[in-house]
Amino acid sequence: MTQERPRLHADRPDAAAQIGGLLFAVVLIDPETRIAEANHAAENLLGQSSKRLIGNLVHDVAQLLDDRVLERIMATDDAVVARDVSLRIGGTEKRLNLTISPLSGYPGWRVLTLSESARDDTGGDDEASEATFGAPSILAHEIKNPLSAIRGAGQLAARKLSHADKPLARMITDEVDRIARLIDRMQQLGSKHSDPVAPCNPHEAIRSAIATVRAAGSNGVEFKEEFDPSLPPLLANRDALEQVLINLMSNARDAARSAQEPMITVQTRFVSGLAFNAIRMGRRVRLPIEITITDNGDGIDEALRDHVFEPFVTSKKSGQGLGLALVRKLVRDMNGRISHERDARAGLTHFRLHMRVADKGISA
């Protein structure tokens, strides 16, 4: 006796609905390499509606900067898989994963997919981070004890030294404080503890961070807000989110000083179709709330752009290279995502945060 197969649901999604719901961009290309269809994620990634995309040559919309990949795509109808390739989209260079699949029975027709290459902070580098900061975190406590003694000795010496020699004692205490701050930041990076998250009004956190950066000295840098007033509460730890924003804005302020009219723009928007994946505990997390911090400075040294979130990488003469590494950790602890890109044509640097939405019915 054969077992009866379960009946399929009568209202199951059709192929168009399935493609429309995908998290990565899907573009149908005709034999003349023109865009024939584009899903919602493609609209968000390419920065245009499907109505405006359809009919355009795909290379006019997304320009491949890797000649080897471009030659292979143009010269063959075989399937192509390329990871972490450079494309220029709307004047901005992006690093993406790309696939091209020929459609059997339809000569010349192909399906192009584009997805984030996750070169920012979502890679599986937890073990490397633990190896880098685990031992220093253990030693930090032992290092701080003698530092406290040295600082106390410096303060005591300052009382007994002549006025001319007091700057030497102050230098001792200042350097001890600097080393202690460095150890504190290393401890934060090595910590596996994550602070609890709760619904948070993103605009309140942003304005609080702007106020803090301004209080520290904006040096003529103007802040511009471009907020989506309909943005729902996001899920974050308020203190951690503000620390992330303060670090990013402080870096943007320092970078913008090189501009003739220094400007920092903070933009928020809801990216409904372009949801990112943050793999945590074996599950996918949708991250549709986007916060972008843009400055019009000279940008990050090209040799460092692929490594800005790594520890001890910095272009600042007095920098420690731990600020963006700490930002990455805090964002990851909130199951968020951070990335950066340089728009050379416009002379702008963008740092983008993508965060979760808080549960419906809960206000921040």
What report would you give on this structure?
- The protein is of the alpha+beta class and 364 residues long.
- The protein contains 10 helices and 13 strands.
- The protein has helices spanning 15-20, 40-46, 50-53, 58-61, 67-75, 126-160, 166-190, 202-215, 238-256, 323-333, and strands at 25-29, 35-38, 62-64, 80-89, 92-102, 110-116, 198-200, 222-226, 234-236, 263-270, 289-295, 337-343, 348-357.
- Strands 7, 8, 9, 10, 11, 12 and 13 form a 7-stranded mixed sheet that branches.
Describe this structure in a few short sentences.
This protein has about 375 residues and is α+β, with helices and mostly antiparallel strands.
> Helical segment tally?
10
What is the CA-based Rg, rounded?
25 Å
Secondary-structure class: alpha+beta
Q: Write the element-wise H/E pattern from the N-terminal end onward.
A: HEEHHHEHEEEHHEHEEHEEHEE
Which bin fits the share of residues in helices? 25-40%
How far apart are the termini?
59 Å
Major beta sheet summary = 7 strands, mixed
Total count of strands:
13
pLDDT under 50 segments (min length 5)?
A: 119-135
Strand residue content: 15-25%
**Rounded average pLDDT:** 77
The global form is elongated
SSE topology sketch:
Layout: H1 15-20, E1 25-29, E2 35-38, H2 40-46, H3 50-53, H4 58-61, E3 62-64, H5 67-75, E4 80-89, E5 92-102, E6 110-116, H6 126-160, H7 166-190, E7 198-200, H8 202-215, E8 222-226, E9 234-236, H9 238-256, E10 263-270, E11 289-295, H10 323-333, E12 337-343, E13 348-357
Features:
single chain; 364 residues; alpha+beta; seven-stranded mixed sheet; six-stranded antiparallel sheet; 37% helix; elongated
